[in-house]
Amino acid sequence: MNFNLSSVLLIFSYVLCAIAGPPGIEVDTDTAEDNSVGNEGLSSVDHSTPSSDVDRSKCPKHLDSVVAINDQEWLFFRSNKVYKLNNRKFVDSGRPIQQVFPRGPQFVNATVSSGPLTLLFVERTIYGYEYDGVQFTEAPNYPKELHDRVLFYPQGAFPLNNGSVILLSGNVFATYNVQQNAPSFLNDKNRYFPNLPEDIKSGIEKTQGFTDAYYMFDEATVSDYDMNSKQVLQLQNIPDFLKCT
């Protein structure tokens, strides 16, 4: 019998963690089991392979990750640069990540916010930063290594309202307790979060502190995702969603 990587990871996940819904999110099993609902009728989007758009524009059309600092200020990561957004508008031409995040990485695989922390993930390393409204400083006891019960490298992430975060790779996710630096739950993304983008990079709460609705990003598109119905309400290309000045 042949097993793909996701299947192997899920077998380990069931052994390592109790089968219970991830903290901070009420799981509707009736909705979760119905994965047949597609995105028909949504606006057409650009699924072309992204070229290197960083050097040609101060407003990239594709992203590696995006994280919210607060309701107005977001950070948009592409290649080795990070761009500042204010009210979904690019307000600078991007700076090297290591200029914004001292002793930080040259690139990121995933980013997410957790309370006052902004977390950057590169393979199994977690970089943590605090923001004083002007600049980022390295948080105490960071960087850290991802707990060895998480068997994948995070390729996407989104926050919960209890300080934990969701880490994703392919069809596998982990609910991760940031304070304890340990997972509390691992399972199948398509079971608990059906209709999410296949290769989700980031999720941002539409209103900070409320986890009933998110903007979910893959490399080229943004999905308006309702966490209660587990449905995508609208799908847009990144250049249509973000404003370039």
Automatic annotation (TrEMBL):
Record key words, sorted: Repeat, Signal
Residue ranges of the region described as Disordered: 30-58
Signal listed as a keyword: yes
CDD domains linked: HX
SMART domains linked: HX
Signal peptide start and end residues: 1-20
Bias type Polar residues, positions: 34-52
Classification via InterPro entries: Hemopexin-like_dom (IPR000585), Hemopexin-like_dom_sf (IPR036375), Hemopexin-like_repeat (IPR018487)
TM region(s), chain numbering: none
Protein name: Hemopexin
Lineage: Eukaryota, Metazoa, Ecdysozoa, Nematoda, Chromadorea
